[in-house]
Structure formats: C-alpha cells, structure tokens
Design brief:
Elements (H helix, E strand, L loop, with lengths): L3 H16 L2 H13 L5 H27 L12 H28 L4
Helix pairs in contact: 1-2, 1-4, 2-3, 3-4
C-alpha cells in the first residue's frame, strides 16, 4: 500500500520545484523528515542525501564550465553570475530527486 504522507511530501516537492515555491519545498522536506514510515537512513537520504547529490552535480557543472569542458565558459570574475544562474536548478534538481526517492520508498511493503 502506498503511504499518502510520503506521496504528499513528494507532490509538495515537485510543486515547489515547478513553481519555485520555497514554502512548498520546505514543507515537503519537513514532512519527509518527520515521517515515521521511513527508517533513519532513508530519512537522511531523502532530506540530505538527494539534495547533497544535487549540490555535487551543480558544483561539477560549475567546475566543467570554469575549465571549459562544457557549457558557456565562466569568464574571470563572473563566478557570482554563474552561481546565480545555477543554484535555482540545483534546488529544483534536489527537490525532484527527493520526490522520486520518496515515491520509490512509499511503494515499499511493510
């Protein structure tokens, strides 16, 4: 059986990512954090692990741009502009990754 609370958290995370609503994002992560359906390790993955992977991906993207490997190269002295362009996508990616993880874990049989 699906867990409606985890699915609600996933919907809030996706809605927050799509509409850029910080309140929905935070509420989704708070619900996931407070859920008793997840084990402590799963809670850490949903709330910290998936966003951490998104941050690592964002840093990798910026590294690749600064070294000229992909994307538009970051010109000298314009890293703040690059960060300003990248962080909204990192937050959205973190929210979607957490939502997918929550949907996957909500399908688990107990």
């Amino acid at each position: 059986m699906r867990n409606p609370l985890l699915l609600c958290a996933a919907v809030l995370l996706v809605a927050g990512a799509v509409f850029g609503n910080w309140f929905a994002l935070l509420l989704g992560w708070v619900i996931a954090y407070g859920s008793r359906r997840l084990s402590p390790a799963e809670t850490k993955w949903a709330v910290l692990g998936m966003p951490g992977l998104a941050v690592a991906a964002g840093l990798g993207w910026l590294w690749g741009r600064t070294t000229g490997r992909w994307g538009d190269p970051v010109t000298q002295g314009h890293m703040n502009d690059a960060l300003t362009q990248t962080w909204p996508w990192v937050v959205r990616g973190a929210a979607v990754a957490s939502a997918l993880f929550l949907v996957w874990r909500s399908q688990r049989q107990r």
